Amino acid sequence: MNIKHCFLIILLVSYYKVNAQKVYTTEEGHIMMMTLVDNKPVKAESHKLALYLDYDSKVVNGVLDLKTLSTDSPKINALLEQREDPLILRFTGTIPSQDFLSKRHDPINFNWLIDVTYQGKSFKSQFKATITHIEQGVSMSCLISATGQLLVSNTGLDSLIKGIDDTIEVQFAQLVLRLE
User: Fold this and answer.
1) What is the pTM of this model?
2) Domain with 72 in it: what CATH number?
């Protein structure tokens, strides 16, 4: 290998490392959902919410396979486990604060418009969100938490889970590290 190839490889590796630092990623986010099924409350949660935060654009992308949900209903757990195909729910939304990961701040409350996609259907939903600054010794981070409702008619979940209510309450919280 000649010098030009070595230099090109070093440049590409350096570029990848710099750009890789611009996206915060977790595959172990926590999400809870609550609804009624046959007029009985059902709670579902997963620790497999994948979240990606682009530090530059402040766009958050989330991905959840509904098959990772654990519910307090054995019937629904069995329905989810028996599905062969993934039940992928995706969402994306932009956080309207540009500097929440660069300095201390009071809690930032905002209405968060997100685009949701599930089983080929796309729709918008609005969540109440808060970004809370957290001191962790010498490092800083923020907790992004959001609550909102999804209309079951937008998702088609009523064809999967018979007797499900019209809405699903959703809550999630994720700690994101400060950009260094």
Assistant:
1) 0.78
2) 2.40.128.110
